[in-house]
Design a protein that fits this description.
heterodimer; A: alpha+beta; 3 helices; 19% strand; B: alpha/beta; nine-stranded mixed β-sheet; two-stranded antiparallel sheet; 11 strands; 32% helix
């Protein structure tokens, strides 16, 4: 039986096969395409989603962004987890 | 009217491949006059339309109907749409599908399947759809969908005669490992309006159903997403038709007419442009029916100055016409419509009386006898 995926900092997130995260050449925008849904991530969310490749943990994604934006790691990891949890609850993200 | 430079390409196209359907649900929202098989678009027309949609930057294509699997060339269309990077969705009654065909569609690029259910209880479900063993077949196909690793949405059409089973419906969707459940309250367009009195839920049923959905959403968070929209007849605010007229969606009927929504065939005075004569992008930008109710300039008072004018975009034009006789009138769903009380008061009264027998139909446009038990 399926259970809710609760993301932790060590979770390695990946976008599932049936969800597509891509740049649309005609519209010139990033989009997350899911069943009967299209979501438009803002620039930060786009950066996070690009890193959800099934190779790195949420912790590492956060550390990377913290370095780039000179922000506290803990806070960034918390924000990233929250954003990705929302996507996981919609079924648009899973763990690797 | 939207200024040209503000007009973005639509997000999705609903491709109604055929009006043919093995079911004859009494709440069918397709038009009363169905399009016959010999008038359906040819494969090459659909493939060209798919190209035009992709070139416009449209993201998603929903293959729908009637019953889209009634078309033998569905495979070609799915394959082509996938090649052109459209997100492909099959909206089906499921009863015509074999496992082999579903697997083939998946291998050709199908990305999502939506299966409609008439009830959680077989006997009532088959009575509503007027199709013997339909429910059993749907359950089987829904399982195949998940076995093949495709995401599944269950579309549960709810009304007075099955709302008592809402909890079982939710359980059924969960047990089928669906990702999403659409609790779709019957909308009274097309054929459905003939059967309104048989489907109109009572206020008590609706209040219970909202509580059930609220609880299930909490309990099943991250497991099953549940969409639920309050039916118009009990709402006080109209909904944005298709995200606003001519803003996000276009609908192509089986013979190629392009409409702002699938119910717009009821607007008989419009001349809808056809994909056989014009390109999809030309139609999106220039077609008279699209421009007629686009934006906010066309709006009557009190819509024009309402804070919600860019939220609901004036609600539903088809409903305004069907219930007030004036396509440009305030959607009577809105509490500010002068006709709100009169129209919705009398319609909801119907739910207090004994439900009349369903009026079924067939593709021949004739009314049919219910299936014998």
């Amino acid at each position: 039986m399926k259970e809710r995926l609760l993301l932790k900092s060590e979770t390695i997130p990946i976008i599932p096969d049936h969800v597509r995260f891509e740049f649309n050449e005609v519209r010139k925008e990033w989009v997350l395409l899911a069943p009967e849904r299209a979501l438009y991530p803002d620039p930060i969310a786009t950066e996070v989603l690009k890193k959800c490749d099934g190779k790195v943990s949420i912790q590492l994604i956060g550390e990377d962004l913290a370095k780039k934006y000179k922000a506290p790691v803990e806070k960034i990891v918390e924000d990233v987890t929250k954003m990705l949890q929302d996507l996981a609850d919609k079924g648009f993200l899973k763990e690797c | 009217m939207l200024k040209k430079f503000d007009l973005k390409a639509p997000l999705a196209v609903l491709a109604e491949l055929s009006h043919r359907c093995p079911l004859s649900c009494a709440y069918c929202s397709n038009p009363v006059e169905l399009i016959q098989k010999n008038k359906e678009l040819e494969t090459k027309d659909w493939l060209r339309v798919i190209d035009e949609a992709a070139d416009m930057g449209i993201y998603q294509i929903h293959f729908s109907g009637g019953e889209p699997t009634a078309r033998k060339d569905l495979e070609e269309m799915v394959e082509h749409a996938h090649k052109r990077k459209l997100y492909t969705n099959l909206i089906t009654s499921a009863v015509l599908l074999t496992r082999e065909r579903l697997e083939k569609l998946k291998n050709l690029g199908l990305e999502h399947v939506q299966v409609s259910f008439q009830d959680s209880e077989s006997e009532n479900a088959n009575r509503i759809g007027n199709f013997k063993n339909g429910h059993e077949k749907k359950l089987e196909v829904a399982k195949w969908v998940r076995e093949l690793g495709l995401p599944l949405t269950i579309n549960a059409v709810m009304h007075r005669q099955n709302l008592h089973n809402l909890e079982n419906m939710i359980k059924m969707a969960k047990d089928l490992d669906a990702d999403r459940l659409e609790v779709a309250n019957v909308q009274y367009y097309g054929w459905a309006l003939k059967n309104r009195a048989a489907f109109m839920p009572t206020k008590d049923q609706l209040e219970k159903s909202m509580k059930i959905v609220e609880k299930a959403r909490k309990d099943l968070k991250g497991i099953l997403a549940i969409d639920y929209v309050l039916p118009d007849y009990y709402a006080k605010k109209p909904k944005a038709c298709m995200g606003g007229w001519g803003r996000q969606f276009l609908n192509i009927d089986p013979e190629g007419n392009v409409l702002p929504c699938h119910a717009a065939q009821t607007l008989k005075f419009f001349k809808f442009d056809n994909v056989k004569d014009k390109s999809l992008s030309w139609i999106w930008e220039n077609s008279e029916p699209f421009n007629k109710f686009r934006g906010t300039d066309w709006m009557p008072s009190p819509c024009k100055t309402c804070d919600r004018r860019e939220i609901d975009w004036g609600g539903c034009r088809c409903q305004a016409l069907a219930l007030t006789g004036d396509v440009g009138a305030v959607d009577p769903t809105c509490e500010f419509s002068p006709l709100h009380e009169k129209i919705f008061g009398s319609a909801t009264e119907e739910s207090g009386q004994e439900a009349p027998e369903f009026i079924y139909r067939l593709i021949s446009n004739k009314e049919v006898e219910p299936v014998k038990k």
